[in-house]
Amino acid sequence: MFDYIKGTVTYINPEYVVIENNGIGYQVFTPNPYVFSIDEQPKTVYTYQYVREDVIALYGFASREQKDLFMKLISVSGIGPKGGLAILASGNPAQVVQAVEEEDEKFLVKFPGVGKKTARQMILDLKGKLHDIVPDAVPSLFADLDAQEVKSQSSEALDEAIEALKVLGYAEREIKKIVPALMKETMTTDQYIKEALKRLLKQ
């Protein structure tokens, strides 16, 4: 129903952003809300409306390619919108496409909610059907924000990143393993999420 929304971001939390357009605030669930920043510059977010008996939700993406990949992911039995967001939050769709094409189940099961059965289903359903997802056309979901946060804000940024990882479905025990390394760095929330996901996918 909605192809995209162009408006200003007025609110950000670990699960979604609010985009205001003509006085209406749209709640949009995204892979990494902290890619966005609250400012007056209008943003274009490509949206997918998800409708079930008890749920109507908007999911938003930085490009049509990200949106297309999300739609293909949730077409796989066993992958819902939350799982699709967690996979896209890795920031590297090319890796996901490569894993599917090479039948790399070991890589795919690293994502929250993806077990061997779902990984196998992803391969069966998507192999050979992702050729139109051109990696070079898919901008990183972790585009660097201006690093203006000072060290005193670093702890708050890390806390926000941890909450965002929990929303994506990562277990506390997994997160705790990487926190000590993250605490040594001073980053924005977005950068913490990017680094955390890199480490989680290597565990």
UniProtKB/TrEMBL annotation:
Primary residence: cytoplasm
GO cellular component: cytoplasm; Holliday junction helicase complex; Holliday junction resolvase complex
InterPro entries reported in the protein's UniProt record: DNA_helicase_Holl-junc_RuvA_I, Hlx-hairpin-Hlx_DNA-bd_motif, NA-bd_OB-fold, RuvA, RuvA_2-like, RuvA_C, RuvA_C_sf
Keyword Signal: no
CDD domains, alphabetized: UBA_RuvA_C (cd14332)
Coiled coil, from the record: none
Limits of the Helix-hairpin-helix DNA-binding motif class domain: 71-90, 106-125
Comment block on domains: Has three domains with a flexible linker between the domains II and III and assumes an 'L' shape. Domain III is highly mobile and contacts RuvB.
Record's protein name: Holliday junction branch migration complex subunit RuvA
Origin species: Priestia aryabhattai (Bacillus aryabhattai)
Name of the gene encoding the protein in the UniProt record: ruvA
